[in-house]
Amino acid sequence: MRLYMKFFAMHLKSQMQYKTSFFLTALGQFLVSFTTLLGVYFMFSRFNIVEDFAFEQTLLCFAVVLMAFSMAEMLGRGFDLFPRMISNGEFDRALVRPRNVIFQVLAAKMDFTRFGRLIQTIAVFCYAIPTSGVIWTFDKILTLCLMVACGSLIFFGLFLIYAAFSFFTIEGLEFMNVFTDGGREFGRYPFSVYGKNVLMFLTFVIPLALFQYYPLLYLLDREQSAFFMVTPLIGLVFLLPCYGFFQIGLRRYKSTGS
Amino acid sequence: MIVLEKINKTFRVAKRQAGFGRAVKALFSREYEIIHALSDVSFTIRDGEMVGYIGPNGAGKSTTIKIMCGILTPDSGACDIDGRTPWRERTAHVRDIGVVFGQRSQLWWDVPIIDSFELIRDIYKVDGKIFKDNLNELTELLELRELLKTPARTLSLGQRMRCEIAASLLHNPKILFLDEPTIGLDAVSKIAVRQFIKKLNAKRGTTVILTTHDMNDIEALTERILLIGKGRILLDGSLDELKKRSSERKTLIVEYSGNAPALCEKMTLSESKEGRLVISLDPADLSVSDAIARLAEQTELTDVSVSGVTSEEMVAALYKEYSI
Prior knowledge:
heterodimer; A: 258 residues; mainly alpha; two-stranded antiparallel ribbon; 13 helices; globular; B: 324 residues; alpha/beta; 11 helices
C-alpha cells in the first residue's frame, strides 16, 4: 500500500507537468457525465416517474453507479491501457520486477482527470441523499457504502477481464465496453426498467444489478429482507472468475510472449 | 551460475497473406506456421563471467534472454540460475537480476531521474543505506550528478542510457542482462558505457550477459562469445579463438609514387587505383615483411598499412558459413 502511494505521488507529479491539459481534461470529463445527468433530468421532466422510481431515487442510482465506475476507473486505469503495455513491451518490464503483476499494472497508470467525474457524483449525492425520501438509518448508510464499494470492485473485475482479453488479442476489445461504459450509461436507471431478461443477465452473468437494483429496493423500503442489503457482497464472487481468467491469460502470455 | 539445458521453444505464428480476399479468408480459418525459436539450447555461464551473445536478427537472442529473465516459459528443457528456475520462482529470481532493454525505458518520462530511482528502490525494497551507497557509486562512475535532477524526457539518448543502466543496478543484482545497450549511441557514450560495464564486472563480480550487433562492444567487453543462429547455439568460445579459426589472411594497403609494382603470385590484388593497391595475402605462404620488401624494391612506397580480419568481418563470415 505504501508503494501504491509512492506510485500515486509519481503519477500526480507527472501529470502536474502539464497543468492546463490536466484541468481541461478534468473539465471535459465533468461535462461528459453532466450531459448524462441532463438526459436523466429531461426524461423525468416529461414522465415524472420511470417504472415506479421518482427522479430523486433514480439520481441515487445514477450517483452510485457513476461513483463506483469512476473509482474503479481511477484505480484501474492501468487495465485500460494494458493492450498498449503488452504491445510496447512495458509489460515485460513488470515481469522482471519482484512485485505482484496485477499490482504493477494498476500502478502503471493513474488518471486523476477522473476527479471531474467524482466531484460531480458527490454533488449528485448531496442532492439525492436528502431528497430521495429515504430515512437514513445506520443500515441504510451501510448499504449505500456497500453499493459504491462493491460496485467499484465489480467494475474493476470487468476491467480485469478486459485486460485478460488482451493477452489473447489486442484488437477488437471494444466489445468489452458494452459492459463497462455501457454499465455506467445504462446504470443511471434502475436495471429493472430494461425488462426481465436484461435484469436476469445483470444478476447472474455480469452482476451489475447486485450492487444497483437490489440494494436500491432495500434503501427505498420496497424490500425488508436483509438479504437485499448484502447483495453487493454476493456480487464480489464475480471477482474470482475475473482473476482466474487473468491468470490463464498470463500463463498464455508467458508461453507465447506476445 | 547459469545453466541452460536443452531449452526448446516454438511459437505458432499466424500466417499473414497479402490481398483482401485472403485477409477475409484468414478471419475464418487461419493457417499457422510453427517457428522453432530455440532448439536444444544449452550453455553454462559461471559467476562473474562476461558473455557476448550474438547472432543475426531473429536468431533467438531475445527469446533466450526472456527465458532467463522468467518472462517466457520454454516448451521443454531446464534452466537453473543460482538454484532457481526463473519462470517458476519469478519474484525471487528477478530480485537478483538487472535487465536493460536498450530500446525501452524504465525511467519516468516527466519526473526527475532521482524520483524514478527512489521508486525503484521501493519496488525492490532496497535498504536505505545500501541504496545510498549504491547511488553514490553509480553517480560517480556514470557521471550522473547533473542528470539526477532533470526529467528523462530532456536527456539525450546517451545520458538516458547511462541512467537506465544505473536504474537496473540499484538493487545490487548478481546478473545483469544487457539487450543492445549501445544501440543508437554516439561514440563517446558508447565508450563510457563499455568502460562502466567493465568496471562493474571487475569490482562487483557481476555476471554480464550482453546482446549486441556492435562487434566493438564484444571486442571491448567480453572474453567469451556465444553465437546463436536459427535457434541453435553454433559456437561457444573466446573471440581470439574464433579469429584464429577464421581465415588468417592479412590485408595490405600500400600507396606508392612512381611505377606500379608487379605482384608475385602469392599476393592477390583486391583493389587497384592510381597510386594505391589493396593486396590480400596469407602469411603462411608469404610473410608480410617479405611482401613489403618485395614491393619496395620496385617502387617508392609512401604509405603502408596492414590489417587482419576485423571482428565485424569475422562475424559476417561466420553468419555466411552457417548460412544464418
